[in-house]
Design brief:
157 residues, alpha+beta, OB fold (Dihydrolipoamide Acetyltransferase, E2P), 3-stranded mixed β-sheet, two-stranded antiparallel ribbon, 4 helices
């Protein structure tokens, strides 16, 4: 543990002061005075609704709706699972992100989304700028094919 504790690359946690901005060489906003945990996983985490019920991961609309509420600086309840790494890739302490629940808004930190609104000019005649589906190479099926099926599926030549 002493060896892992002294090597930041071998652990998934640490004091916030270790999270340094490479441009300013200062800790990122919101990290100083706190502890960070780096957690990830191959599968997306389970998302828990405000009423404590999990969202069905197959319900992509509900899943995306709740995950869009989360941003750097918001408060969440999180379930993480630490594990010991001892394999051909090395030794260390790692952490899986199991589940998240949005708790409340707080002061956002980080760069946030880039504002590209000043990078574009108005489009003249936008209705004509949009290509029609036929102009995009959409197939036009012959009217003689039954039920709109293409000839190769009906045996017609």
């Amino acid at each position: 543990m002493g060896m892992i504790q002294s090597d930041r690359k071998q652990r998934c946690y640490g004091p916030g002061e270790e999270k340094i901005n490479k441009k300013t060489f200062k800790p990122y906003d919101g990290y100083a005075g706190h502890v960070f945990i780096t957690a990830g996983r191959d599968q997306p985490p389970q998302i828990i609704q405000a009423d404590g019920q999990p969202i069905d991961p197959n319900n992509t609309m509900a899943y995306q709706m709740l995950t869009r509420k989360m941003y750097g600086g918001c408060r969440v309840n999180a379930a993480v699972k630490p594990w010991v790494q001892a394999n051909s890739y090395g030794n260390g302490i790692r952490c899986d992100l199991i589940a998240l629940q949005f708790l409340r808004d707080d002061t956002a930190f980080g760069e946030g989304a880039a504002d590209a609104s000043g990078m574009f000019a108005a489009v003249s005649n936008p209705a004509q700028a949009m290509p029609s589906p036929a102009g995009m190479g959409a197939p036009a099926f012959p009217s003689t094919a039954p039920m709109g099926l293409p000839p190769f599926m009906t045996g017609a030549q």
